[in-house]
Amino acid sequence: MDTLLQTLKDGLTIGSLYALIALGYTMVYGILKFINFAHSDIVVLGAWLSLVIATAIVKALGLESGQTAPWWVGPFVLACAMLACGIIGFTIERLAYRPLRNAPKLNVLITAIGVSLFLQNTGQLQFMFGTRPQPIPTLLSDKVLFAIGNMQVRLLDLVVIGTALVLMIALEWLVFHTKLGRAMRAVSFDVRTAGLMGINVDRVISITFVIGSSLAAAGGFLWAVSFTSIKQPADTSWVLLGLKAFVAAVVGGIGNVRGAMFGGLAIGLLEVFGQQYINPALKDVYVFAALILVLLVKPGGILGKATVEKV
Amino acid sequence: MASLQDRAAHFKSSPAGGVWRALWPLAVALILGVVMQLLVRPNIDAYSSAQILNIGIAIILAVSLTIVNGFTGQFSIGHAGFLAIGGYVAGSLAFYGSFAIFGSGAAKLGILSGLYGAPAGAPLITGGEVLFFISLLAGGLVAALLGVAVGLPSLRLRGDYLAIVTLGFGEIVRVLIQQTPQVLMTKQDIAESPAWKVPLSVGGSLGFGNVPKYTSLFWVYAAVVVTLIFAYRLKQSSTGRALLSIREDEIAAEAMGIRTTYYKVWGFVIAAFFAGIAGGLYAHTLGISLSPVDAGFQKSFDIIIMVVLGGLGSISGAAIAAAIVTYLPELLRTPDTLQKFAIVGVPLLIAGFAMLAMAGRPDNEVDLKSGRDRRALPRVIITLGIVTVGLSVLAFIAKRFGINLGEYRLIIYALALVIMMITRPQGLLGVREVWDRSLYRPLRDFFAPRIGTSSQSSTGSSAGPSAGGTA
Amino acid sequence: MHARANVTSVLSFSRSALLAAGVALAVLSGCDRGSTPSTGTTGSTGAAGDIVIGHYGSLTGAEATFGLSTDNGIRLAVEEINAAGGVNMGGKSHKIVLKSEDTEGKPEKAGTVVTKLITADKVAAVIGEVASSVTLAGAPVAQQFGVPMITPSSTNPQCTAVGDMIFRVCFIDPFQGYACAKFAASDLKVKQAAILFDQASAYSVGLKDEFEKNFTKLGGQIVAVEAYTKGESNFNPLLTKIRETGAELLFIPGYYTDVANIALQARKLGMTMPLLGGDGWDSSDLAKNGGAAIEGSFYSNHYASDQPTPEIQSFVRKYKEKFGGETPDGLAALGYDAARVLFDAMQRAGTTDGAKLRDAIASTKDFKGVTGTISINEKRDAVKPAVIVEMKGGKPVFRARVEP
Fold first, then answer.
1. pLDDT tens digit string along B232-265?
2. CATH tag for A2-297 (out of 3.30.70, 1.10.3470, 3.40.50, 1.20.1740)
3. What is the CATH number of domain C174-301?
4. Given an 8 Å threshold on Cβ–Cβ distance, is A110 in contact with B169?
5. Do B391 and B351 touch, CB atoms closer than 8 A?
6. Distance CA B429, CA B384 (A)
7. Looking at chain B, which residue has its C-alpha nearest residue A101?
């Protein structure tokens, strides 16, 4: 019983992180119809920026290693990382993707790979983040709130899941209850018509990138505080993380904001349960098998609608 | 188009022509292979021949990926997965097959096999070589079968699903190979192991060692010739036209009655087959198959870069880019050659490529009245000048301040890729080939007299890739 | 297709210039790949009578720290012998020239690189690599050309089985597995142990197998074996499983990059048992990332820098002097030893002829190295003790020594 609950908690934690990252993929795909391969690198950037900023603050405050930082440091670092990544996302879209607005999709994809390689290898430089794993200072006390048998729920777990939830609800509200959200949905539905209706398409796309990148940064921040020791930026595990988040978006229904949230949780739970109850060695296989299965049975994704390609 | 029909009619009309058409590529393959192995290899050192062999394998990989990414416009990023599958299947078959048939896993070299040549007095052809050949084909076929399994679900859909599925596929292959048991090194081990487990014992994460070393310049270049001619004929065939039409506009292609899924899967399967063959050749080179570490998506990205650099859809472009991308880093391991190369080679190389690139632009046929573009060549020369000066300044700065450019290699690579996509989305050669005459028009135009239009230029405007340039 | 051709009908100069710049960058980026290793060259190049030796290792890429440490160790040994006049062969002194080549940690590069060292640089002997899978790709080439090769730190038994030209100066996985098992059973007096290993690394898989075998033989019981993949971050499901088994010790034969996370999460799950690992843990980053969670853990290593023997203390001092105060890790010590074993064999052989040099290396006996007394056995493996260190106050401290 403890194990089941523990697994469920782990699955939800990982799943909410996947969901946060999947949102960025699904938003970009919904509007521009391409996989933004550089998205996972924004997550990495978010994690590493959080690490660098947090380390600087902790140093300035003169805290010992292992000591928990004051409560305001966490939110402050999160805000900084989100802001910085938002700006970087905006810049990438402006410089690399916008010139290719009317180019064949293949070119945009290759550009995305180029941007991804660029971010990875720049991050790996010695004067940037280097090639060694680094620990993020303790920003949150991980005291146990309550325990069921062997299963402990810590403050950190709740904060991670809570932050992810709050951000997702905020996005949901933005997309479905504001004017900007309506513009985004319109552009996603039909770019040209939206343009003719007086929507500034370029601006909407820029904002989409900013929001997607900030969410990625939040995902990176939460990833960093959950797992403490951060892998170097060019580590293949990051690419795999991004890949799984994209799979989550596809499984939930690509282009669908709620689908991404659902898909993220589903993939997170699938992975953790497979690891716990079947064979841990094959955890990546479960995820990709799920993808292929969904593509075969319901190509539009679980929450997605079957769409007809427009000419 | 008329010329194509004529040719088709010609070949259909005579059965002898059909046989000839089927056989001459094989003859060329054999001859080139024999020349490479028996005339070229003994006269160069082992390091050079190892590089030439690597280039050959890279060409097969790049050209096969061109069929998917270039011709069909689909995006596969799991090519290394097929390479690994082909390598492991062929290696396993040849290694354990040798034990079953000859009683040991060592290679039985004939005069055409072995990277370092066969021992003196080797027979013309051995049973081991036949086994090796069969293993290669088997590796290719298994890769092709997996191509169907991967391609069918993902290629039914439009869009980039193929990219994500192939990426996932490559990773699954890697994880599964890691689960395999240790290689069985002796007859006794094999006898003791359960029969079903024997062919699966391919070394896990350590890699598959001790694969018999058959691969030679003969085998690789024979395969290169076959791959090139196959790709060329595919491009000219009705299947190739269907693939190109899907690339240009899938919806329009479907409206014209082309079974898009069917053709996409075909293209994908053919590419997987050749990647499998390349994997088999690789596995038998140094006796170690592609280890799981190498089979990741970074290897796939390397192949994609070759295809993109060469031109999406150009066979010769992909081959040239494969050679350059493989050879340069090796050539430049020594600082002396690096210097020599920086002075002579870089400008030459850029000159060649830039000329081809700019001449190959479809929009070069702007000046319909005269059919020429006199500005192209001077522009190339000016660009070259800027680039050479820029490079020299960069090299000087790096040397002066002791900056190691090697660290920035992949960053520069990535930037080049992005710049390339923005400025020249179709790659250097586009869908054209080096032998397309229209490619050299700027040269001709520059030196041609100013007055009068040649007959070529009037048809030039319609000489799209469809004419193939071989009229 | 023609429609597309007309879309971009303006051939502007700036675009073609940009394009050419792109191509140039691509070409240039190819150029620089090879320039890194040239920094590894020491001494006067090409002078008559000099002996060239080669080193291939991961000088760039994700495993760069391993290759660079080894390279530093070798360079130190080369510098030392050249300062002493060079290798003395048949009454004549020859200076040593070191050529280092980069494998980027990829097996597929190793074959070409070793071919290059042997045929283009004409090296008398080759040293390399760290990772067994890369060594296994380079070794057949050295064997083919009859050039002796010493791997400083590839512990997989298969590496020297490639042929009679391939040697090593480190212990092998079976022995390291035995050393860990022995330490766990007789020193820590543990009865039940769990294993968490990295399925992507041959090193980890090999060590897991050997530990399992030896620990059971010594009367212990393996209660759980779980696999992770290099780079993974979430170990909770695996650790939860292990926690339920009530293991008294967790054996993690992985690399330090993953160990820190495992330790942190295990402690959070309330698992207080000691952790034990292999030489893959050896890095100053382990304590930095693991913090308090890694305190009191053990790992087997080739040497401990705090051991008071004169060889070790003089090596540590010289290394610190040359490389800016950095404490040498096990890989640096092994690189240093590999080079010195080679020089010793050259002096005894009196020639750099492949077969004679091979025989001289094979007859190495009781060589006093930094990483212990090295004797080469009939399988061309080094027979030498392993050291178990304990993490105390963020530093590895000598704890025990396990003799072969």
1. 999 889 999 999 999 888 889 999 999 999 999 9
2. 1.10.3470
3. 3.40.50.2300
4. no
5. no
6. 18
7. B422
